[in-house]
Amino acid sequence: MDVTLVLTQFLNGLQLGVLLFLLAAGLTLVFGIMDCVNLAHGSLYMAGAFVCATVTLATDSFLLGVLVALPATFAIGVVVEVLVIRHLYQRDHLDQVLATFGLILVFDTLVHLIWGPESLSFPLPQILNGQVTLPGGVVFPVYRLLIIAGGLAVALVMWLVIARTRTGMLVRAGASNPRLVNALGVNIQALFTLVFGAGAALAGLAGLLIAPITEASIGMGNEILIVAFVVIIIGGIGSVRGAFIAALIVGLIDTLGRSFLDGAMKLVVSNQAAETAAPAVSAMLIYILMAAILYFRPQGLFPPRGR
Fold it and tell me: Residue 152 is part of which domain span?
C-alpha cells in the first residue's frame, strides 16, 4: 500500500472531520441545552457559504467575505431563534422537526429568490491556491491545510471559552440542567439566544470554508446535516468534546473507508464482488458505528456531566 496515499487520505479525513465538528458543535449545544431538534442548522451552513461567495465576488477579497459572513450568520441565527426557535422550546420533538423542516424550505426559497438557481463559485486568493510538500513527500493543497489548522484553532478557542469562562460555565450547566440554571437567576433566554447565534456562526464558518471547494449551492447543508447528527449521537448530545472527537472519527472512517475498503475486501472476496459491495459498505460504516454506540453506550462516548 502506498504510504503517501494513506497520509493524503488521512489528511483529507481530518479536513472532513474538522468541518463536521464546526457544524456539529453548534448543533450539539442547541440540542443539548435547549432540547430542540433544529433541522434548519444546515441552512445556516448554506447561508454562510452564499454570503461569503457574494462578498468575495463583489470585493475580490476572500478575507473580507469571511469577516462579513461570520457576523451575518450570527445575526441570521439570532433572528431565527427570536422569531421561530424560542417558540418551540416547550413543544415536543415532532413539532420542532416539522417547524424546522419548514425553515429549510423557507431558506432554500429565499436563496433561490436572491441568488437564483445556479451555484456560486469563486476563486481562492493566489496565496491559498497552491500546494505544499509535507514530510514524507505528501503533496497537499495549502487551503485544505488552512481548513484543518483553522478548525483546530476554533476547537481550542471553544474549549477555552467553555472550560475557563463564566459564560462557558453557564453553557455547561445549561447542557446538564437548564432548569437549575434558570432557578439560580440566570437569564436563560439570553443564554439560549447567544448559544444559538454562536452555533449559527460556526455552521456559517463551515459553509464558507467548503464553498471554494464545492461551490455554494441551494440545499448544500441538508446532506451534511445528517452526518452532523451522527456525530453528536456518537460523541454525546450536549458535549463539545464529544462532538470534536466523534467528528474526527467519522471524518477518518468515511474518507479512509471510501478509499481503501475495496482493496481490503479484494483480499477475501473476488475483485468484482469487492468493487460492487465496497461503495455501499463504505457509505454505511459511520451508521454502523452509530448503531453500535447506541447499543453499547446510548448516552454517547463523552456525554456532558450530569447526564
Answer: 21-296
